[in-house]
Amino acid sequence: MSSSRVIKSFRQLLNESKEQSRRRLVIEQIISAMSLGVNLSPLFADMVKAAQTTDLVQKKMIYLYICKYAEENKELLILSTGTFQRDCQSQDPLVRGLSLRSMSSLMNKELVEYMAREIKKGLMDRSNYVRRIAVLATVKLFRVSPELVLDTEIEKKLYSMIAEVDPYVSINSVVALNEILASKGGISITQKIIIHLLKRFHEFTHWGQSIVLGLVANYAPQSEQECLQILNLLDNYLKSGNTSVILSVSKVFINLINDLPNLRNQIYDRIKNPLITLVSCSGDEMAYPVLKHIYLIATQLPNLFANEASRFFIKGSDPTYLQEIKIDILCEIVNKQNFKQIIFALASYVINSSLNEHISSYCIRAIGKIASQLSSYFDMVIDYLMEFIELDIPHIVEASMIILKDVIRLFPEQSLEIVLPELKRLSEIIHTEEAKVSLIWILGEYGEKIDEGPYILEKFVETFSEESSEKIKLELLTSVLKMFFKRPPESKKMLGVILHEATENSNEPDVIDRGLFYYRLIFTDINKTKSIVLSEKENFTRFTENDPLELFEILMDEFNTFSVVYKKPYEQFKRIIHKNEEEEEEEDDDSSTDSSSFSEEELLDQIQQNVNGLDINQQNQSQSQNQQNSQEEQEIELEPKFNLEPSEFQNKWMNSSHNLNFDFELDEELDKDSFEEILKENNFQVMASGLIQSTIKIFCYGKDISNNQIGLFQLLITGVNVKLNAKGTNPQFLKLFAEYIATVLTE
Amino acid sequence: MISGILFINELGKVLISRIYRQDITISFIDQFKIKVLAAKKTTNPIKHVEGTTFCFRRIGSFFIVAVTKKNINAALVFEFLNTIIEIFKGYFGEKFNENTIRTNFSLVYELLDEIIDFGYPQTTETDILKLYITRENQRQTKKSKESVKQISIKATGVIGWRQEGLKYSRNEVFLDIVENLHFLVSNSGKFLKSDVFGEIIMKSRLSGMPDCKLGLNDKVLLDKRSGGKRTKMKNTRGGNTPIVIDDVTFHQCVKLSKFDTDRSISFVPPDGEFQCASYRVTENVKKPFKVIPIVKERGAITVDVKVTVISLFSENLFAKNTVVRIPTPPNTAECVITTQTGKAKYDPQINCIVWSIKRFQGKEELSLSAEVNLIRGKQSVWSRPPISLDFTIPSYTSSGLRVRYLKVVEKSITEVVKWVRYLCVSKGTFQVRI
């Protein structure tokens, strides 16, 4: 979409607004349009010019603008250096800081010399506000040209600035060095630096504290005594009101365990309570990463939180993501003491209708997982599962059957005693696909142990042809074949039926394939088939592999980062930034414009309204301004000696894509010649003119210098009434053109 | 660190975008729209898309999103988002919504520029920010020279959260102790879960740089003291029985090292309101109410409910706006309710009998009985969710926490008016199994 009118209007407003408060409003509107996604890049030169204001409010906004559009206006950027430099000399530290911050944010190669000079000055500035900005600006300079920073005075200066009294300067120096030296593994963490930072730890903001703690976590204390000192000093900060600080202290503590293995349990005990409190006291969003960290610790130290199970019980008001992670934690911390409590809680969630289906299935899976961990209680688990199945709520039955199948696979001997007698009843009450598949699997695997086993299967076979689920059909084929080898007399007929149905009357290729495969197998070698179908299965004791210790150790190393939240080492989810960023950026602009569905007209109106809102109070000024306004509004300037051949004119007249009709009145009546004269004075070219009765008819054209647009028009003048018919290729231009004609004639 | 901050509404319209580091491009906002806004399932507040992480918090109809490329500390990001929200609320009041952002976008940009530089959080103390922010008071175009000077002095100070040179003609301190109860009680009255989450909120209007010292009836502290000769002290001081605090966190201004050595809470408070401490107590907590539920299923179509609620706190106190929610089976058709006090009615939307009592005096016994008629037909199991209570009890703490003293030391202050209030609150978190 072209926003040329918006830009034009802004440019004009900028030029005409002399009074500060009005200018401020105009600039505010520009920033507003910018955040709406209008591309205001063409205003760059005007805005740079406007930056010479003394009004800090305007300056801040203009610098924001400059930073945003600097990329697209590289060639004009040099214009702004003067302003930046002047502002860096300002008396007001706020202006110096602002200028330095903005200039360095441009990260432009052309400006690198100016940048370096001002940064060096900024580092020595008498105001700590400016110094702290200058410190971070060194990183930006480093990004543009590393050689100006690395191994130079700047680097040395930064090290010395860590010792500054101002806590912001000190912390910023640490982060700046850390970034600049990233390729060398970050800032060199010496004992001296650590002692210095820890000594004044209380002075820093929470953010600063978190950064210092990040350094301490990477620091290898020289002696056990030093470890203990750090431990004691930071112990207080487990009471900090800031989650980030508490987690960062926890990380330091965990890292110190390597040096103090005998204190391992005490250390974990220290961080346990603060973490639990964080879960209950913070908002949902914050609780999420904290719970993820607790989960990580719980996977390796389940007993640490075993007595606190009730803290991880879910609340109806918890969002799903919290409910899930809490259930995960419960699965990890379960032991013989809290088993009943946890299972009871999970079971109550399953049947609690106020929780969503996803969570109740999740709980059933959790119950199955717990059964695999504490084998001695599996009978209780089976009882619960059977109860769930009888509830006859589809999603619960489904999940329960799957878990029941898994529990049987884990503890076949013991659990079959309970489940087998129930199979017939179960086969009558379950309806859902996955549940049926599980049931059929159980029947195929163990159904021979009960008398009615083959007959239950037979019931399913009877409805085989009506069955719509491919999954059930496939499972049934396999189960019937298994049954055939175990109880041949009762199953022979059923096998015949199902193979026939599968191969002859099925539509699903997979079902036909499997049927044919079994068919051929049996005919080739029946004994071999038996050994294949009834092959010994390996016993297994857990469903999923425990997370390898390795992963845990990596995650512990990356404690207090997103790695723990994603449960993945950083290596696995980081991505190198694309090289074709520029391309992407181009795309962005389009998309951002598209996505913000503003209408140009509305926007113009709004801008006009907002800016004019001020005028109500200042009518005197604005009247004169309005007059100027109307003069300046027509920025159309026509080429004086532009000439079109009559045929060209005719051609254009016939083929113009846009047409505009416009009526207006003149102040006084004029004759044909004076019309032509006015038009010629304003560089319009008259193609033809004539008088039909009392109506003057003029064909005319003109070419705008600035955008090379050509406009054609016809005037029909009767008395003071003028009918204008204009033609051109660009509707926006056409409108301006028509308005221009009207103003020319009315004056 | 943080590569950018976005304000984006539910419809995916970007209200404000401020990018601090060039490692992300605006096209990533679209990723947020696709992966979070357009996703049918509610996702967790940390979303990873191709090496970029979005951390977001919803506020009414819009989201504040922090975007980063680095593997950083998630808690810091959320603490920071929370802080931003607090700052904006400080500027715009509680009505911090899409509209206020739209009308104040330039102030929002200005704030975002001062609180983060190149992705690193800088000043986030509202008091200090006021010195940098020009926009707040539009009429005052030229900052007073004094405030310019302060910028240099400020921030150097160890006390970053308080502006120097405050002056009040009347010095006042308000302390609010608010306890949120998270109780789960069995139908026989046994505690299954007893968590009290308390907050100490201080609101002060004090001149100068006052040193405050707050004394609580904390068991560790009193034991320490009484270790010597003054064994009787805990009984003489207004009958304070010491309590055991499981865990406590403090505002940044509290000198933690002092708390560690002698359990005293001393601090120079920020001006205005702030949360001084939050704590958790689980032992020896008192129940404000005893609830005796009797729920009998009579046949397949009727359930008889009788609930008796007894207030256990002193008769001088009362609970405000007590609401007892008694769940009924999902196939409830109607409830015939009889009660002497308060209003009660069946709410089919939440499947509960809602019984509200405006003022519940201490040491009082109220009861409600109801006959719940069920819809005949498909019988489904009733999970019997717990009864939940809402209430607010002024001047009462479940943990027994008391403020023993609050000392304010500052040269320029001669007299301080101190107010201490206690409040015990449950918002459906006091639950009784039936």
UniProtKB/TrEMBL annotation, chain A:
Its main location: membrane. Residues 582-592 have a biased composition (Acidic residues). Pfam families: Adaptin_N, B2-adapt-app_C. The keyword Transport applies. Keywords: Membrane, Protein transport, Transport. Residues 638-746 form the Beta-adaptin appendage C-terminal subdomain domain. Residues 578-601 are annotated as: Disordered. It is found in: Endomembrane system. SMART domains: B2-adapt-app_C. InterPro entries: AP_beta, AP_complex_bsu_1_2_4, ARM-like, ARM-type_fold, B-adaptin_app_sub_C, Clathrin/coatomer_adapt-like_N, TBP_dom_sf. Belongs to the adaptor complexes large subunit family. This is AP complex subunit beta. The lineage of its organism: Eukaryota, Metamonada, Anaeramoebidae, Anaeramoeba.
TrEMBL record, chain B:
The keyword Cell membrane applies. Keywords: Cell membrane, Coated pit, Endocytosis, Membrane, Protein transport, Transport. One of its GO terms (biological process) is intracellular protein transport. This is Ap-2 complex subunit mu. Belongs to the adaptor complexes medium subunit family. GO terms for cellular component: clathrin adaptor complex; clathrin-coated pit; plasma membrane. It is found in: Cell membrane; Membrane, Coated pit. CDD domains: AP-2_Mu2_Cterm, AP2_Mu_N. It is a peripheral membrane protein. Residues 170-433 form the MHD domain. Transmembrane segments: none annotated. InterPro entries: Adaptor_comp_med_subunit (IPR050431), AP2_Mu_C_sf (IPR036168), AP2_Mu_N (IPR043532), AP_mu_sigma_su (IPR022775), Clathrin_mu (IPR001392), Clathrin_mu_CS (IPR018240), Longin-like_dom_sf (IPR011012), MHD (IPR028565). SUPFAM superfamilies: Second domain of Mu2 adaptin subunit (ap50) of ap2 adaptor, SNARE-like. It comes from the Eukaryota.
